[in-house]
């Protein structure tokens, strides 16, 4: 496997560092969109990335400019707009022509960023939305997507879940916004449920 580090300018006067994992002759790319404080080195990205490798997919792990600058800005429309603008410019320089299929794997803040970026660039992608936020609902409705959330997630409650009836939805019983609980052993079982669902989704896409 070939690993490249790609750097791009951002609105935060810091170079964003993307990491690209390439397998020989791959025709599927998984793009990882981190959460506000949940980087792609953490379990909900680390283990799905290993599943992607297992199926010979390439993976592109993103970083937002404020993360590169080690800042913690407040959540706002301006923040999201700056992230999407930066990523749109970066994607203009990335060769996507080898890929027959692109999967956006995103978490929390990253779910709305992924939806907006695909829309802005006119990209035909498949989505895996992990712990989405309410602003992601229009993109969930528009796409053939997998949504994973927790029954105890205060950000995406039954009210929000009722608005995405057409989506493929997995609700992890007892899980919070991090798809965790205070009991580490239960958390591991929750992670296994997430991975099994993502694995099934990847297999189905791979067979198409």
> Remind me, CATH topology?
Rossmann fold
Number of domains: 1
Distance between the termini: 24 Å
The biggest beta sheet reads: 8 strands, mixed
Shape: globular
> What is the strand arrangement across the widest sheet?
1-2-4-3-5-6-7-8
Amount of helix: 25-40%
| Rg from Cα | 16 Å
| Mean pLDDT over all positions | 95
Structure summarized in a few sentences:
This protein has 208 residues and is α/β, with parallel strands linked by helices. The chain contains seven helices and eight strands, in the order E-E-E-H-E-H-H-E-H-E-H-E-H-E-H.
Overview of this structure, please?
There is one protein chain. The protein is α/β, with parallel strands linked by helices and 208 residues long. The chain has one domain (2-207): Rossmann fold. It is 38% helix and 23% strand. It has 7 helices and 8 strands. It is globular and about 40 Å long. The chain starts with a strand and ends with a helix. The relative contact order is 0.14.
């Amino acid at each position: 496997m070939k690993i490249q580090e790609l750097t791009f300018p951002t609105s935060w006067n810091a170079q964003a560092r993307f990491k690209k994992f390439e397998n020989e002759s791959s025709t599927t790319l998984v793009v990882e969109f981190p959460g506000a404080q949940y980087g792609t080195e953490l379990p909900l990205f680390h283990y799905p990335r290993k599943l992607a490798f297992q199926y010979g997919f390439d993976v592109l792990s993103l970083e937002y400019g404020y993360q590169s600058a080690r800042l913690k800005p407040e959540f706002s429309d301006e923040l999201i707009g700056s992230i999407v603008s930066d990523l749109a410019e970066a994607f203009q320089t990335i060769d996507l022509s080898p890929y027959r299929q692109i999967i956006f794997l995103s978490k929390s803040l990253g779910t709305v960023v992924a939806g907006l970026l695909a829309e802005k660039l006119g990209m035909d992608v498949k989505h895996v939305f992990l712990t989405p936020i309410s602003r992601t609902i229009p993109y969930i409705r528009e796409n053939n997507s997998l949504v994973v959330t927790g029954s105890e997630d205060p950000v995406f409650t039954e009210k929000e879940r009722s608005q995405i009836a057409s989506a493929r939805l997995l609700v992890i019983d007892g899980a919070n916004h991090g798809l965790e609980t205070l009991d580490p052993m239960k958390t591991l079982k929750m992670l296994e449920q997430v991975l099994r669902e993502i694995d099934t989704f990847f297999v189905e896409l791979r067979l198409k």
